[in-house]
Every structure is written in structure tokens, then in C-alpha cells.
Design brief:
Aspartate Aminotransferase, domain 1; binds pyridoxal-5'-phosphate; Aspartate Aminotransferase, domain 2; 13 helices
């Protein structure tokens, strides 16, 4: 038995994911946190830090966290940064928002993928920028990628930033070097900034696929990119609130840092401990989790694609399955699956109502139960 098969009761723990369906027999498979206990190394370090019992202000970032991020990026992605480029953030959604504020002025256009993690859609508007969606395109090998031809046609002198997501949530795409080079070339031609949300980069499920930070392509890409990362999704520590931006261009970094200081609270000291230990000592646990998630993904894909009129697309990364349910003709997909006892995220949140997104970062037995419920509900409407 794997450690990820352990039954953990998350009810009565103020879990956003589980409390949504409090008192109802609905398996929560929506918001993107996992049901797994984090790595024991992290728990131990947090316990030790708590036992010290003094929780005054800490360095922002701590030397330990800077060192951990620096080494992590070099060893995992062959990306040599300078530790001064690291800017700690209490949340990556706030990081996306601050990034949009780095464009010249209100009214500037910010391009986003049309199908995307929902905050991308309202963040530019919240800070007075105009949101321009560019569609995703399905390639022959069933990978969803940003439609670069459409991007080339849409980008204009008013476009000051592309908000990019790699690996992509919800389609799970890991962009190739060629694709990233194409994106960079378009942005360079139009002298446009890139904000690259790479929060899911340590969750690559496909063997042989590799995450490439777009800022690591070359000096020009680095100079026009704000990269956002965190240990939060991979190590299930999102509730602690910590992510970071990497900004190599000095002027852009100074501007970003000033805005952080003006608008953000200090980083929680426990979150910094968790991130340091995750990157320094969590690798064996991470790989074990990848193995477990890969098996969950393969199981889910087999089962869903054996159900008439449902189609799960291959998923290279993340623990979020992107499933086409359009042929079921459901109307309100969320209500249908909730009535079946499975709490999914409707695709309309992400910009495509033909789909649902299902979080499979849970113990296998629970996933099997969810699949059985889906199978039964669909069988009752497909004759
Ligand atoms: C692409 C992406 N960015 C950002 C976030 C949220 O980051 P945070 O909790 O640090 O604000 C998520 C959470 O699901 C996400 O999928």
C-alpha cells in the first residue's frame, strides 16, 4: 500500500474543498489542492519551528528559502538565476495581478489564453487593463496549446503583456522548447512583457517530458518575463500562502518590488520553512507522489474513455483532468455530476462549457468510487 492510499478525514478541518459539500454525499474533486499529507520532512521542520515559540518578523525572503529556490531551479530546470531575482509573494494570484500592473498604463491590453484558470480572466480588468483572449488549439497529438497563429494576428501595439500558463491549467499541457521559442519571438517582435505562471511545473506526469521555464530560453526572454512559481500545489501547502516571482531585469524588478512592498503583507514564517524544506529535502516524496498521480491519471483516462460520449484528453502535467462532456448534452454539467455524487469544476469557469475539470489528487479508492458514480449516472441517460 502506498502512503497516498491513507484515509485522511479532512472534514472538520475548515477545508475549502471538503466544506463545500458538508453533510452531503458528494466527493469533492474541484479546487486544486490534493488530499495527501505533505512530506514528513516538511511536517517535522514546521513542528520544530513552532516549538521555538517565537514568531516575530522574519527576513523576506529568508536565506534558507533563497538558497533552496536557487538550487531547485538549477537542478530541476538547468536554470541559473541570481538569488536577488527572487521576490517572495503571499499568493500567485496576487503575483498575476501585480504583473499586470507592470505594463505602462491603464488601458493597455493584456493577452490571456481563452481557456484558462479563472483569475486570469478578471485580473487584467481589475487593474484597469483590457483583457484580450486568444484561443487554445487542439494539435493532432491531442495536446492543447495556445494558438500561436491567432496570437500573431491578435497582438497589437497596445498589447503590453501576455499572461501565460505553463504547465497549462486546465489542459495540462507542457509546452515544448519550439512552442516557447515561438511565443518568445512573437513577444519580442512586439516588445511585449510575459508573465509566466509556472505553479504546476513540479507536477510533470509524462516520463520524457520536461518543464522549461520560458525565462530560461535566452537573455531576451529572461529580461521580458516575470516567472511565478511555488511549492504549494506539489507539496499540498497552498494554505500556508507562499509563492515567488523571478524577475531578472533590474528596472522591472525594482518596480515590481516597490509594488509588493506597498500592497502586500509580509510572508508567513512557516510558509518559508515549508518551501525551503520542500525544495531541499522533498525530492524523494515528490517523485513518489508523481508515480501515484500518474497511475491515477492512467486509471481515470482508461475508465472515462470507456464511457460512451465522454472524452478525457491526454494530460502531460498537473492533477487536473480536462474532460469533454459535450456529447452528453447535459446543460448544467456541474449539477448533473453533483447529483451523481461527484463535485467537479464546470468547464464554463475556465472558458469552455463543453468540458469539466476533475481533480484526481486523492486516494485511489476514492477515485474508483467517483468513477463508479460517474459511470452509473451517465449510463442512466445514455441508452
Ligand atoms: C495556474 C494557477 N495559478 C495560481 C494559482 C493559485 O495560486 P495562489 O494560491 O498562490 O494564489 C492556481 C491554483 O489553482 C493555479 O492553478
Amino acid at each position: 500500500m502506498s502512503r497516498f492510499d491513507k484515509i485522511i478525514d479532512r472534514t472538520h478541518t475548515d477545508s475549502e474543498k471538503w466544506d463545500k459539500y458538508k453533510g452531503r454525499d458528494i466527493i469533492p474533486m474541484w479546487v486544486a489542492d490534493s488530499d495527501f499529507e505533505t512530506a514528513p520532512e516538511i511536517v517535522e521542520a514546521l513542528q520544530k519551528r513552532v516549538a521555538h515559540a517565537v514568531f516575530g518578523y522574519s527576513a523576506q525572503p529568508t536565506e534558507g528559502v533563497k538558497e533552496a529556490i536557487f538550487d531547485h531551479l538549477r537542478s530541476q530546470y538547468d536554470w541559473q538565476i541570481d538569488s536577488d531575482w527572487i521576490i517572495p509573494l503571499p499568493s500567485l494570484v496576487r503575483g498575476l495581478s501585480l504583473s499586470c500592473e507592470m505594463t505602462e498604463q491603464e488601458g493597455d491590453q493584456v493577452i490571456i489564453p481563452a481557456t484558462i484558470y479563472p483569475p486570469f480572466k478578471f485580473i487584467p480588468g481589475n487593474v484597469g487593463r483590457e483583457t484580450i483572449p486568444v484561443p487554445m488549439k487542439l494539435l493532432a497529438d491531442e495536446r492543447w496549446v495556445l494558438d500561436f497563429d491567432a496570437l500573431q494576428k491578435t497582438i497589437s501595439p497596445q498589447t503590453q503583456m501576455v499572461l501565460f500558463c505553463n504547465p497549462h491549467n486546465p489542459a495540462g499541457t507542457v509546452y515544448t522548447r519550439d512552442e516557447l521559442e515561438r511565443l518568445h519571438a512573437i513577444c519580442k517582435e512586439h516588445d511585449c512583457l510575459i508573465c509566466s505562471d509556472e505553479i504546476h511545473c513540479d507536477l510533470i506526469l509524462d516520463e520524457g517530458k520536461k518543464h522549461i521555464p520560458i525565462a530560461s530560453l535566452n537573455e531576451d526572454a529572461a529580461s521580458r518575463t516575470i516567472t511565478l512559481m511555488a511549492a504549494s500545489k506539489t507539496f499540498n501547502v497552498a494554505g500556508l500562502g507562499f509563492g515567488f516571482a523571478i524577475v531578472s531585469d533590474e528596472a522591472l524588478r525594482d518596480k515590481f518590488k516597490k509594488r509588493v512592498r506597498k500592497t502586500m503583507p509580509d510572508i508567513n514564517i512557516l510558509a518559508q520553512v515549508a518551501t525551503e524544506v520542500a525544495f531541499k529535502h522533498g525530492e524523494a516524496w515528490r517523485l513518489e507522489q508523481i508515480e501515484y498521480l500518474r497511475e491515477n491519471r492512467d486509471y481515470l483516462m482508461r475508465e472515462i474513455n470507456a464511457i460512451d460520449d465522454m472524452k478525457m484528453y491526454p494530460l502531460e502535467a498537473t492533477f487536473l483532468a480536462w474532460i469533454d462532456v459535450s456529447r452528453l448534452g447535459l446543460g448544467d454539467a456541474q449539477s448533473f455530476f453533483e447529483a451523481a455524487g461527484v463535485g467537479i469544476s464546470p468547464g464554463s469557469y475556465f472558458g469552455d462549457e463543453n468540458f469539466i475539470r476533475l481533480n484526481f489528487a486523492c486516494r485511489r479508492a476514492l477515485l474508483e468510487e467517483a468513477v463508479a458514480r460517474i459511470r452509473k449516472a451517465v449510463a442512466s441517460i445514455v441508452q
